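Journal club prep, shared notes

We agreed each person brings one worked example of a sequence with its structure written out as tokens. Mine is 3-oxoacyl-[acyl-carrier protein] reductase. I'm keeping it raw so we can talk through how to read the token line rather than staring at a rendered picture. Sequence first:
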Amino acid sequence: MSKSLAGKVALVTGGSRGIGAAIAKRLAAEGADVAFSYAKSSEHASVVAHYIESLGVQALALVADQSDASAVAAMVNRVHAHFGRLDILVNSAGVFVTGVIGDPQADIAELDRQQAVNVGGVVAAVRAAVPLLADAGRIVSIGTMFASRAPFPGIADYAASKAAVAAYSRGWARDLGGRHITVNTVQPGPINTQMNPETSDVAAMVKQMTALGRYGQPEEVAGAVAFLVGPDAAYITGATLNVDGGQNS
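Then the structure, token by token:
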């Protein structure tokens, strides 16, 4: 690795597993000290933290309820207090809840919590981070290709929550341009994680929906994030990058 992030401090929300864990590990491999949040999985968090430290950089794992704006803000402030700076914020924490509109069996409470996590949690993290971020800092939020295309019923709430994040990112890019802080969104397609394994019953159908005919790996999303938070992406802001194997092509 080039160690292009040496001396930087990154915060990755939802960094104990899946895409978030891959991002946390990749940023550490690029030389950054990495803090990450998690909700329940302390064992997974410990594994990620040990891996980060094995690379010769610092790790900080924090429990935070992403649906609680005050808890998110407290987490961001704690990261800054611990490391003395904050250069990179990656909003990776999110939940996926389905429900067809008008379905009396839909779990409205969980759909509302999804909005609180996927939208409210991102907004809270960015609001807390902006006064602390170094000039020329980086903000990247993980969205979904469903924000641009809804290929099956029941995903309207999830898609809307991620589309809102992409819209916020474009607006924030304008707000923060004067400080040279870039704000971008990465929209994954089907990625091989515990929640969406490439060995599932629907995997064959999902693969056919992509131009490349396969699932992506978390490390491929992490590579896109590493580029956007690195020095070569200093002139990219307000952008949405699809990492979806051509599913949206």
